[in-house]
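DM from R.C. (forwarded with permission)

"hey, sorry to bug you on a friday — could you get me a structure for this? deadline for the figure draft is monday and I only need the backbone to look sensible"
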Amino acid sequence: MSRPDDLIDEEEAHHHFAAAAFNAVWDLLDVGERSAEDDDLLIDTAFASRWHWRHRADAEPRNFAISAWQLARVHAVTGRNERALEFGRESLDICEREDLSPFYVAYAHEAIARAAHGIGDEDLMAEHLRLGREAAADVEDAEHRQPLEDDLATIG
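My reply, with the result:
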């Protein structure tokens, strides 16, 4: 039985599910050993978050840079590094086009470096690690900078 449209507040639903799916990705990433089905669920959930962000009236460019970065991360941790590289580049493109803060730029470089490492392109990895560290140095808030530097340190 379907519900009448007037009982569903679509904006509220997109608001809820964009964040819920985004946060669910982190829960799935914390699972020790994932099955192939878990990996597929992880990727589907990251795409679901981005889809809901696309339908939110309050979405900003940084939300799409973050979504692309999250898609890069889930593809990298599931061994789909070519796709991870595509999403890392998408995140960086958004950051540059929208002149986002160094925090987002650094994470976009982190995504590219991680994917480059996964495909064995050590030159590309080194370049984006360097660029990521340079951008991270410009992040003034230590509470934001430290986790970023920690993530960069896990690559390579």
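R.C.: lifesaver. The radius of gyration is 17 Å.
me: no worries. The helical segments are 10-29, 36-54, 61-77, 81-97, 102-119, 122-137, 142-153.
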